[in-house]
Automatic annotation (TrEMBL):
Record field: transmembrane: none
Name the UniProt record assigns to this protein: Xanthine dehydrogenase family protein subunit M
Gene3D superfamilies membership: 3.30.465.10, CO dehydrogenase flavoprotein, C-terminal domain, Uridine Diphospho-n-acetylenolpyruvylglucosamine Reductase, domain 2
Species, as recorded: Ottowia testudinis
Alphabetized Pfam families for the sequence: FAD_binding_5
GO molecular function: FAD binding; oxidoreductase activity
């Protein structure tokens, strides 16, 4: 690596002040530290958020679950309120990476990084969640802005995410066997306002699949999902799978997600 300073604030106010001054927030470190080791990132100051207790934990607000930004994947997966109100979200968290990643990675770190194959962005967009920051509240449809890009401003920190309880929901992904990221992941949520379908792993970032949403709003069945084709030109290909293969996987994962949501 190289020389850098390390700060470990214990309050949100101190963390914000350090971030506003140019410090790089460190959440779970699952991406940032690896990038630093490869010299793909070179922050002069790290701001470790792990000691800011007010950023961690899960609570309920009416028909919503609010998850603190520094809550670990493992804790989301095992939380009783999450498992009772949005079991699909708990299942998603349980399937992130391996045990080490789940023990260290955080929901806020994942969303701030916005890897195009990450799992949490699919849940946030599929459930129409709200990203709460130190400055404002950002609707899911406005938050994700492409590969590793979000609506966050410099020095703005995620504090929590508010997930509304759906009528039904499920997440299915086809894993890249080495990284366990999603080659394609599909989150399906049925709500009183219709169906939302979010796809991760296929493009430059998570996106809503409007044709699947329209079909599943009319008929929430695997057969309805099977009748929708995904245009390969809208997806990316790499050594793990072509765009055509990923387009096929979108349909397969969508059908499986609907079947799982129906029980």
């Amino acid at each position: 690596m190289y020389a850098f300073t390390f700060e470990r604030p214990t309050t949100q106010a101190d963390a914000v002040a350090l971030a506003k001054a140019g410090g790089k927030p460190l959440a779970g470190g699952q991406t940032l530290l690896a990038s630093m080791k490869l010299r793909l990132a070179s922050p002069e100051q790290l701001v470790d958020l792990s000691a800011v207790k007010e950023l961690a934990g899960v609570r309920t607000e009416g028909d919503s679950v609010v998850i603190g930004a520094m809550t670990r994947h493992r804790d989301v997966a095992h939380n009783a309120a999450v498992r009772a109100m949005i079991p699909a979200l708990a299942t998603l968290a349980e399937g992130i990476g391996d045990k080490q990643v789940r023990a260290m990675g955080t929901i806020g770190g994942s969303l701030a990084n916005n890897d195009p194959a990450a799992d949490y962005p699919a849940a946030v967009l599929g459930l129409n969640a709200t990203v709460i920051t130190t400055e404002r509240e950002i609707a899911a449809d406005d938050y994700f802005q492409g590969m590793f890009a979000t609506a966050l401003n410099d020095g703005e920190l995620i504090t929590a995410v508010r997930f509304p309880k759906p009528q039904r929901a499920a997440y299915m992904k086809f894993k890249q066997p080495a990284s366990l990221f999603a080659m394609i992941g599909v989150f399906v949520a049925q709500t009183g306002q219709g169906v939302r379908v979010a796809v991760t792993g296929g493009g430059n970032g998570v996106f809503r699949h409007t044709r699947l949403e329209e079909a599943l709003t009319r008929s929430f069945t695997p057969e309805a999902a099977a009748g929708v084709k995904t245009d390969p030109s809208e997806l990316n290909g790499d050594l793990h799978g072509s765009a055509e293969y990923r387009a096929h996987l979108v349909g397969v994962m969508a059908q499986r997600a609907v079947a799982k949501a129906l029980g």
